[in-house]
User: Fold Craniofacial development protein 2-like from Elysia marginata.
Amino acid sequence: MGDFNAKVGARRIGNTVGSHGLGEINERGEMLVGWCQENDLVVANTWFENYPRRKWTWISPGDKYRNQIDYVLIQSRFRNAVLSAKTMPGADCGSDHNPVVCKVHAKLKALKKPKHQMKYNLKALKKTPISETNLQLT
Assistant:
């Protein structure tokens, strides 16, 4: 989506942000929360209690600051489908960001079988011989 450097903080904000974030909210975080509320989105990785090491997603050069600035945003309708969300701090991905991993329970919709099967009129085939029908191929 983009790098907003938004921090949503550790306090709960309605049904959008959970109480298990990291740090304090900043101005860009307020903008992100407002956008999420307008679009009926939820910040998934703030709803799960984790160790602080599993929360921070970015580390500054020199290991001076650690912030949670990468988020998983989902529609609030599917909030209960997310089972966990955490970072993988040991991942060797060549970046100063840690990957955010979510476990999601996907419930697939069952396909409906057609109620009526197509029936062929076999009597009509018996009345007219196939050799007498006018078939044109295109």
In short: The beta strands are 41-43, 58-59, 66-67, 73-75, 82-87, 100-104. The chain has a mean pLDDT of 86. Helices lie at 27-38, 122-127. The longest helix spans residues 27-38.
